Amino acid sequence: MTSPSAPRPSKPATILDVAAAAGVSRQTVTRAMNSMPGIKPATRERILGLAKDLGYTPSRFAKGLVQGARTSVGLAIPDLTNPYFPAFASSVVELATQRGWYVVMDDYGHGRGSGLEAVRNLSPHVDAVIGYLGGDAGPAQALLGRRPLIVLDQPAGTAAGCISFDYAHAAKLALDHLASAGRRQIAYLDVRQAGEVPTVRGAAFAGLFGSAGTELTCFSADESAEAARRAVRNLLARNPQTDGIVVFNDLMAAGALKALTDMGRSAPADCAVIGMDGIPLGELLTPELTTLALDLRDVGRAAVDLLEQLMGGLVPDGVPAPELVLRHRLVLRQSA
Fold this sequence. Notes:
By secondary structure, the protein is α/β, with parallel strands linked by helices. It has helices at residues 15-22, 26-33, 41-54, 84-98, 115-122, 137-144, 167-180, 200-206, 225-238, 250-262, 281-284, 296-311, and strands at 72-77, 102-107, 128-131, 149-152, 161-165, 185-191, 215-221, 244-247, 272-277, 290-293, 323-326, 329-331.
């Protein structure tokens, strides 16, 4: 486990913290937070203000339950139509349920949403959040206050903790394999972002330009199988000598395989194709997809375990945010 420089927020505020700050009993805080009778309006407003300042928000699922109510965890997912995310979410739900936690999910993608918006939607209902937030770690943690946020696939920043992936290792695995098979004209298909800035995955591949005597071309497409299909057709029309393609994820790699068929070419005879993520879809394709795989159960376990440590006070306050770095493995199948 490594540690970036950003400090981790202190442990989540509890109802007892609010009671101590307000100089009232726990029962009085409960009455204020749930708009119950038997409390003066001025006292209620003072308690609500202190709760906001401390970042304390009772779980909506815990309201009305006795002491010892279950923890509720938010899960922010950018796109459940991508098979990667349901597999990851399933792992988180299973492992959280084993701990007696509720899981509340927000699927924020589809063109309009953002990671920050997802956390804003989840915030009134949860005690912590795990999510792929696409760069919104800082403002999302500020919104949650002292409640922990675990982000994936981005730097922790001010978030309580993060799960990262060693893309430089993944890129080297793929390119070394293609080079050892005699591939010399290799392309990397990235996801198109605003300003044509490469993704973290794309930057890792670009950093290996010219390695092992290969030429590497980077190009991009929207994140869908059909967009990848069009982009690969265009690439092959411009550069028919391309003999290896690594693709941002397995879903887009399916489109790349279709593009080869469209152009009268085959994988791996004419052009090898490697995807990334290791979702079950790859085994159903023809040819079966070689991929840089993650064990998505391990990813979910890492996130839930780290959150459990943070919520249980096992990570001391005032230390940098803990970061766990996971590595892909190359799963060789028919396409490369």
